[in-house]
Design brief:
alpha+beta; 9 helices; Beta-Lactamase; single chain; 20 strands; Heat Shock Protein 90
């Protein structure tokens, strides 16, 4: 409890010290910000006065221009208009006009002020022989203007007219719009007429003389605070105005306005916060070090008293742990020996399983060529009996080709079983499909299956192996024929399409695929168990072959049968098998 009171008192002291440092640092930073704000406001005021003074001097200099004499004569007015237009273009004035003593405009650069300016306060002042000025909104264009009117004297010393220069306030603002600090200028009525923040335009001074009120008179968040000589405004006027700002003002009697600036005090608050945080961190670090040193002494005294008992306990614990560790080492050695024996058994089992799969695959893949050899042999015998030796010779040649093809199939299946493959290269996909159609022609004719294949006129070269691709399409055609057993409408359509990849589709009119997700699994078949027509390896082997070429094969239902799609890459000369 005693230590808790000490810690609480220390933290309270650190908090009070940090608050005092923050207040002092904030006031010091505000003094620096005030100097910067005064400089920014003076610079903006001088810039505005200088820019407006250009138009004032222009009015004085142009009032006595010889080109503006005798404008009572209408023939001289076009030349005067051209003169005033040239002056307006070179000085960026909104308009330059010359009016007689009754306010009638005799010549104007643009004519935006209308035909009579007698109601202008600046013109009325000029008629008294002095330089006049005013500001307001030009109704015809809806733009803010600042006007100067200089009297023009005749030879008798009397005022014969006045030259008025109308400046566009937006052009004057353009050079300093959007500068870092918010600066605005209010006229004698307290209305904001010029500002580098357009959202403040036409706001008016509040009734108590503090803050601003928008033209819509909607309520706004505003609060003022005095901190020594500084006036702080707390605002909620928009994202482009500071939430807290140092407010300064400066009277500008030359243009009849008051310049005001809002300097964001967030940097001053951050600086004061950093100073206070640094002091608090130093105090807390010192207090923590002192506290830790005290606690360390007390802890060491307590630890010394129990050190001997802990040494004895640790000795007994280490002895028991050593015995347990030796026992665990022996158990791990026995487990490793058992694991090696299990791994050897798994390897042998894997070899036996692979041998069984390949044996089934060889018998399945040789079934179709053997059927073709049998068909050609029967046909050859029939041709010999009829005395047609030439036809019999053709069948014997085809039997030789089938035997060679069986040798290649066995070679490819053996390579497939050993994860080997003959070199891949340039394959005519049209010839491959023609060969597959030829191999299955006799079987399809016997089953009454109509096969539609419109071969392209020229070769289409793909990347792959010829024999293995023939195997793929023979398997797909035979599977389609098997699926349509017992139907009256038996049709198979083969189509070769060229796109980003070569695409061959095999479409049938059978019942479709019962389980599309399992169709390429080994030993998956919809045929009766023990059937000699297939063992569920054809599509699995075809899938592996197409994948080895870098292609893809997929099956889907069409609503009126099944469709298998084989995608292959084009052959490229620079491709290496």
């Amino acid at each position: 409890m005693h230590r808790a009171w000490i810690i609480s008192g220390f933290l309270l002291a650190v908090g009070l010290l940090s608050a005092a440092v923050w207040s002092y640092g904030y006031r010091q930073a505000l003094a620096q910000l005030r100097q910067q704000a005064e400089a920014d406001l003076e610079l903006a005021s001088d810039r505005l006065s200088t820019q407006l003074q250009v138009y004032q001097e222009l009015a004085v200099l142009m009032a006595e221009h010889p080109g503006l004499l005798g404008l009572d004569d209408p023939t001289r007015r076009p030349a005067a208009k051209a003169l005033l237009l040239e002056v307006a273009d070179k000085t960026a004035a909104l308009d330059v006009i010359f009016a007689d003593t009754k306010g009638k405009v005799l010549a104007a650069a643009q004519g935006v002020a209308g035909g009579n300016v007698a109601d202008s306060a600046a013109f009325a002042r000029a008629m008294q022989g002095a330089l006049g000025s005013e500001h307001g909104i030009l109704k015809s264009l809806g733009r803010r203007t600042f006007s100067y009117a200089a009297p023009a004297f005749g030879t008798d010393g009397q005022v014969r007219g006045a030259l008025m220069v109308i400046a566009d306030v937006e052009d004057v603002e353009e050079t300093w719009r959007g500068s870092t600090q918010a600066v605005f200028f209010t006229d004698r009525t307290g209305r904001v007429f010029i500002s580098n923040r357009s959202e403040l335009l036409f706001w008016t001074r509040a009734g108590d003389g503090r803050g601003l009120v928008p033209p819509t008179a909607r309520p706004t968040d505003f609060e003022t605070q005095r901190l020594g000589p500084h006036e702080i405004w707390r605002l909620g006027w928009g994202p482009y105005l500071p939430a807290r700002a140092l407010h300064l003002s400066r009277d500008l009697p030359v243009i009849g306005m008051t310049g005001e600036v809002l300097m964001d005090v967030a940097p001053a608050r951050r600086l004061a916060g950093l100073q206070a945080a640094a002091v608090a961190a130093i105090c807390l670090a010192f207090g923590a070090m002192l506290y830790l040193a005290t606690e360390r002494r007390r802890t060491l005294a307590d630890a010394n008293a129990v050190l001997e008992s802990r040494v004895a306990q640790r000795t007994r614990a280490l002895t028991a742990a050593n015995t347990a560790l030796r026992r665990e080492v022996a158990e791990r050695q026995e487990a490793e020996a058992a694991l090696k024996r299990a791994q050897a058994e798994l390897v042998q089992a894997g070899k036996l399983s692979a041998l069984g799969q390949m044996s089934a695959g060889i018998s399945h893949e040789l079934n179709q060529p053997l059927m073709a050899i049998q068909q050609f042999a029967d046909n050859g015998a029939a041709f010999v009996k009829r005395g047609r030796g030439e036809k019999a010779g053709e069948n014997l040649g085809r039997i030789s080709e089938m035997a060679a093809r069986m040798a290649r199939i066995i070679k490819n299946l053996r390579a497939f079983a050993r994860n080997e493959s003959e070199p891949m290269g340039k394959v005519d996909l049209v010839q491959v499909i023609n060969t597959a159609v030829e191999l299955t022609e006799a079987r399809l004719r016997a089953d009454g299956v109509l096969l539609h294949w419109q071969a392209p006129t020229g070769p289409v070269f793909a990347w792959g192996g010829e024999v293995r691709l023939v195997q793929v399409f023979v398997n797909l055609i035979n599977n389609a024929a098997d699926a349509m057993q017992g139907q009256t409408d038996k049709r198979i359509e083969l189509e070769l399409a060229a796109g980003p990849r070569l695409q061959v589709t095999v479409r049938d009119t059978g019942p479709g695929i019962a389980d599309p997700d399992r169709i390429f699994e080994p030993f998956y078949s919809t045929k009766a168990v023990g059937s000699s027509e297939g063992m569920g390896l054809g599509l699995s082997i075809s899938y592996g072959l197409v994948q080895s070429f870098g292609g893809d094969i997929r099956g889907a239902n069409t609503g009126g049968g099944a469709v298998f799609t084989v995608e292959l890459d084009y052959f490229k000369e620079d491709k290496v098998a």
